Amino acid sequence: MTESEGNKNEDCHAANGVKPGRNGMVKNHHHHHQYQKQEKVYNAACNGELYSRPFIESFEETPMLVAVLTYMGYGILTIFGYLRDFMREWKIEKCHIAREREEQKDFVPLYQDFENFYTRNLYMRIRDSWNRPICSVPGATFDLVERSSNDYNWTFEYTGRVVKDVINLGSYNYLGFAENTGACATAAGEVTVKFGVGVASTRQEMGNLDRHEELEKLTASFLGVESAMAFGMGFATNSMNIPVLAGKLNHASLVLGARLSGSTIRVFKHNNMQSLEKLLRDAIINGQPRTHRPWKKILILVEGIYSMEGSIIRLPEVIALKKKYNAYLYLDEAHSIGALGPTGRGVVEYFGLDPKDVDVMMGTFTKSFGAAGGYIGGKKDLIDYLRSHSHSAIYATSMSLPVVEQIITSMKCIMGEDGTTVDPPNRLFSPLPLNQRWQLQQTGSTGPSGPGEVLNMTNMSLTLLG
Ligand SMILES: Cc1ncc(COP(=O)(O)O)c(C=O)c1O
Question: Cα–Cα 20 to 30 A to 101, which of 24, 74, 396, 452?
Fold first, then answer.
C-alpha cells in the first residue's frame, strides 16, 4: 500500500463544490450532520463525468484525543519498558524471556534491538487481545477457547471453558456462506460422500472433473465474461498467473506475481489517478531505461476493494487511463466480488461498467463464497492460454470437490439461481439501481484489442501497482 494524495486539480474541486482530501475522497470528521451536508453537495472527483452517479467515499479520521492518548500510552509503556530493562540488568526484575541468552551472544542475533524491546515490554502485556484460539465456525459470532496466564502472557493455559458468541471482526466470511449447516454445507457433504476430498491429479492430467467445468462456466456467467478458470488457492492465482501474463503491487500475492514476472515494477500513489497518469505518460515518453525502446506491454494492477484500507478503486478513471495509454488492466476483486454491486458482481458492477473493459478479472473464493481458491476471468483466448501455460494448471492438484461444490452453491444463491428466494446470509450489496449499470461514458480512445495481444508480449513489460 502506498501513501495516497488528493486530486490536485483545484478547478475541478471548485466545480464540484467539495474539496476532497487524500485520494480525492471526503473525510468523515465524525460529525453526522457534517457528513450529511457533504453528501448533499454532490461530490465527484475531477473526472466526475466518468461516473454514472456521485462516488463518495468517507473515512473516519482518528479523533485528536484518541491519537494523543494512544501516543501517550505508548510513551508511558516505553518509559516503563526501559525501567524494567534496567531492573533486569540489575537482577531485580525476574522475567528475562525473549532476550538473547549469554551463550548465544556470538551468533547472529535472533531479535533486532527494538523488536525485542517492543515484544518484551509492550506487546506481551496486551497480546491476549489477539491470537485467541477459535473453536467454532467463523460466522458473524463465534466461540473462543478460554485461556489464562500466570506469567504476564508469556504462556497460556486452557481453562477448559468456552467463551460463547463473541462478535467476529476478523474473518472474511463476508456473506456468511462459510457455515457448517445450510445448503452449501449439505452440497459439499454430499459431493464428499460421492467423490471424496482429494482429486489426486492436475487439471491437465486426470484431475479435470465436470464439477470443475461447471464452476468455471458459472463463474464466467457471474462475471459477465467469455471464459474463466478456477485455481485451488487465491494467493497462487495471482502469484502463478501474473508471471504467465506479464512474461519476464498492494497484496503480497500481487507483488510476488509481479516480481516473479520479471517485469519492471513502478508503484503509483494509492488510488491516485494523477500519479498513475504521470507514470503512464513517463513510461510512454521515455520507454525502457537505457535503450528507450517502447515498453512491449504496460499492465496496471489494482485491487477492487483495497485489502488494507477498504477503499474502493476509482475504476472508471483507471479504465479511461488504460484506454488512453493502451495499457492492460488486471483487477483483483478478492474483497469486492460477491460483496459489492447491486447483485454482488463486484466493483465493475458497482460503477455500472462493462466487464469487457477489464482485461484480467481476478478474484478469490475465500471471502464472499466461504470456500477456498481463486479465479481468473476474461476473453476466451486469455483463459485458453492460461489453461495451457499456468503453472497452477500444469503442476498443482485440482480443486477439491467439496470446495468446488461450496462455491457453486453459494454463487448460485448470490445469482438467484438456486431455486429459492433466499438472500445470502449477510447480504451487504449497495443499492445502485439496475438501470444505472453499464453506463460508463466512452472516452473515444482505442485501447488494446484483446488478450491475444496481452499474450504476444512476453518480455520488456512494465507493471504499475497502486
Ligand atoms: C487482494 C488480495 N488478493 C489475493 C488474496 C489471496 O487470496 P487467498 O486468501 O484466497 O489465498 C488476498 C487475501 O486476502 C487479497 O487480499
Answer: 74
